[in-house]
Specification:
The complex is a heterodimer of chains A (about 300) and B (about 220). Chain A is of the alpha+beta class and about 300 residues long. Chain A has 8 helices and 11 strands. In chain A, helix 7 packs parallel to helix 8. Chain B is about 65% helix and about 5% strand. Chain B has a single domain, classed as Up-down Bundle (Fumarate Reductase Cytochrome B subunit), CATH 1.20.950.20. In chain B, strand 1 and strand 2 form a beta hairpin. In chain B, helix 9 packs across helix 10.
């Protein structure tokens, strides 16, 4: 989406090297979302739409505080509300800001066949370039977080850019800027992890949350968006945050061993057939020559 | 010479030729052939970044992505028509198993040592069933891949399965297609003409499809034996 002037480290559907890869040392950027101090005000939802100039569609009211059931191609940032019953029977409200996680090992980028439709910048931001998107939807299949959304009219896929355009100009993402409680933080991955761990320790030591922890799933190589959760052993309770997200194994098989096996078989097949023609040749030079092959009877 | 009945005199053509493929058979063959080539080229473009330039050449990635499923439907209709036309003749019988057991002779062009094939030999029958089965697999998985955004999250395993099934079935058809084109265009002179003009020479029928030759002409293919 953005035309940010950031160095690129990974390009989808790209043959050959990545120009500019490793030419610059950049911090891995990270957004920290502390769900324990989020009040669900939705300022980030509004700021996201404002900054990214997204057209506003109709919301869906289903007797909850949630703006709509799922994110949309033009609604990248959605707060998920869950009423959670604790072990002692008391009620607790789980509020989680949901958006692209900016995986270090992005399944969308792995699955994408179109050259340059998805890029990962050196700072870790995963960004869709709609000009190069062919609308195949493979990214939807590759993503373990159900994030990419198809625009039904343009057949291009959209998602949160982590405000790559703002970050490239040394500004924080617009959602961070708008947060009134300070539950959103932005900085280097190392700093954000330190901050998150300190907060989780505080929750474990001084509040009644013995399972408090940081959600930074290793299955996708860690993420550029991390959460502090009251109970890190049960992320599903927070609007279906997957416990151990991974790029689907069929996607990894398809883009890995199957691809090399298939390529070897196709090239080997072509070479084999050509070698057969060189070695054995056609069954007969011309149609008429068929009669001249030995062991044949007389013409009818 | 013995006098077997000429069961299909209408298939005998002047100049010692036999009609092998009627017009509707040839027409459906090329519906399938041209749609398959388009699907192959655009499919290879989506398969590997090293061949993505094919999609650019064919009008761009968006156009290729938009047309690939529609050509897929044409291909599916064509293969279905082939199934209707030919499946009765494509049953795998003992002679076809024997054909595969002696396929080494076939590869070395020692066709006189092969069991006498009918209108279709064991290899051709395998090609037919391979394409029919892979067409069904690619159609079903292709419908999922066509509109993945409408597959709900809790049915996502359909999408995960579809990418594997689609690519695997396509790879099998590529293997069959390479052998088919090689046999029809290069190895077996007269075969390509049969699917353009429809007829083959009597010698061609007698050598490669002795059972079919006897059925059409009423003459034994190998009087000396």
């Amino acid at each position: 989406m953005s035309q940010a002037t950031l160095r690129v480290q990974k390009i989808s559907g790209h043959a050959g090297t990545v120009p500019g890869e490793d030419t610059q040392r950049q911090y891995q950027v990270c957004k920290l979302i502390d769900t324990t101090t989020c009040i669900g005000c939705k300022a980030c939802e509004v700021a996201c739409m404002e900054w990214n100039d997204l057209p506003f569609g109709k919301t869906t009211f289903d007797n909850t505080y949630q703006t709509m059931p799922e994110t949309r191609w033009n609604y990248w940032n959605l707060i998920k509300f869950d009423e959670h019953e604790k072990a002692d029977g008391s009620l607790m409200w789980l509020v989680r800001k949901h958006q692209c996680m900016h995986c270090a090992d992005p399944g969308c980028l792995k699955a994408c066949p179109s050259d340059g439709a998805i890029v990962q910048y050196d700072n870790g931001i995963v960004d869709f370039q709609q000009a190069n998107c062919i609308g195949c939807g493979y990214c939807i299949t590759g993503c373990p977080f159900d994030i990419p959304r198809m625009n039904p009219e343009t057949h291009r896929v959209f998602k949160c850019t982590l405000c790559a355009d703002r970050v490239s100009e040394n500004l924080e993402p617009s959602c961070i800027k708008s947060c009134p409680t300070g539950c959103l933080h932005f900085g280097s991955k190392d700093d954000m992890k330190d901050l998150a761990e300190a907060r989780a320790k505080q929750l474990r030591d001084h509040y009644d949350f013995p399972n408090a922890g940081v959600y930074d799933p290793a299955g996708v190589g860690g993420t550029g968006v991390i959460y502090v959760l009251h109970d890190v052993t049960n992320p599903e309770a927070y609007g279906g945050l997957p416990k151990d997200p991974r790029v689907p194994w069929t996607v990894r098989l398809w883009k890995g061993p199957l691809k090399w096996l298939g390529n070897a078989a196709m090239i080997g097949g072509l070479i084999g057939l050509f070698a057969h023609y060189l070695r054995v040749g056609p069954k007969a030079r011309e149609d008429e020559d068929i009669t001249m092959v030995p062991h044949e009877g007389k013409q009818p | 010479m013995s006098t077997l009945p000429v069961t299909h005199p209408e298939r005998l053509a002047p100049h010692h030729r036999i009609l092998r493929y009627a017009f509707h058979e040839r027409a459906w063959h090329w519906v399938v052939g041209f749609s398959y080539i388009y699907l192959l080229l655009t499919g290879l473009a989506f398969w590997t970044p090293w061949l993505f330039w094919i999609a650019i050449l064919l009008g761009g990635g968006q156009v290729s992505r938009m047309l690939h499923p529609w050509f897929g439907l044409i291909f599916a209709v064509g293969v279905s028509a082939m199934y209707v036309m030919w499946h009765a003749q494509m049953g795998i019988k003992q002679i076809d198993k024997d054909w595969f057991n002696s396929v080494g002779y076939y590869i070395r062009n020692e066709d006189d040592k092969m069991p006498p094939a009918g209108r279709y030999n064991g290899g051709q029958k395998s090609l037919f069933w391979g394409f029919v089965i892979c067409m069904v697999l690619m159609l079903l998985s292709g419908l999922v891949l066509w509109l993945p955004e409408y597959i709900p999250w809790n049915l996502r395993y359909l999408r995960y399965l579809a990418i594997l099934v689609h690519a695997s079935a396509a790879l099998i058809t590529i293997g069959l297609f390479l052998i088919h084109v090689y046999m029809g265009v290069f190895a077996e002179r007269g075969a390509f003409g049969s699917v353009i003009r429809g007829d083959v020479s009597l010698q061609f029928a007698r050598r490669y499809h002795p059972g079919w030759y006897e059925e059409i002409t009423g003459q034994p293919a190998n009087p000396e034996k």
